[in-house]
Specification:
It is a single chain. By secondary structure, the protein is mainly alpha-helical. The protein has one domain: Globins (Globin-like, Orthogonal Bundle). Helices cover 70% and strands 0% of the residues. It is built from 6 helices and no strands. The termini are far apart. The mean pLDDT is 89.
């Protein structure tokens, strides 16, 4: 059921909970996230809510580097473009199932940009010479 646009922390919590509900049960991503997060899904979701609150509402709550956790996952199971594409599909589904409007669109655009940036950063960390071409 679509609501209005994303406008509060509660809206972000609804989005993040819906998204991670899908991720936990996903055949491709569920195990990767569980290996990294362990049993602290609540703590992870709280940090992700802080991130999106900073991005979408301008509240300066998120002060971490998102790449670090992804580097650890990449060491265990090299992430490929399909992982990121699928992550974007699940995120897009969660946004579009619950919200519509300017901030919802901004969330989708930001997620796609983050996906591309994260892939480039992981390639750089692996020493891939092609990653330098995207800089």
């Amino acid at each position: 059921m679509k609501s209005q646009d994303i406008s509060t922390r509660h809206d972000i919590e609804v989005l993040v909970k819906a998204f991670y509900g899908e991720v936990r049960n996903d055949a491709l991503l569920g195990d990767l996230f569980t290996r990294q997060i362990g049993s602290d899904w609540e703590g992870h979701e709280e940090r992700v809510c802080d991130f999106w609150e900073t991005v979408l509402l301008g509240t300066p709550k998120f002060k971490s580097r998102a790449l670090l956790g992804h580097l650890e996952v990449d060491e265990l199971c090299p992430l490929c473009p399909f992982h990121f594409h699928h992550w974007c599909e699940l995120f897009q589904g969660a946004v579009q199932s619950h919200f519509e409007g300017e901030r919802a669109q901004r969330a989708l655009c930001r997620a796609a940009a983050m996906s591309a940036t994260m892939q480039t950063q992981l390639l750089r960390e692996r020493g891939c010479p092609l990653a330098a071409l995207k800089a």
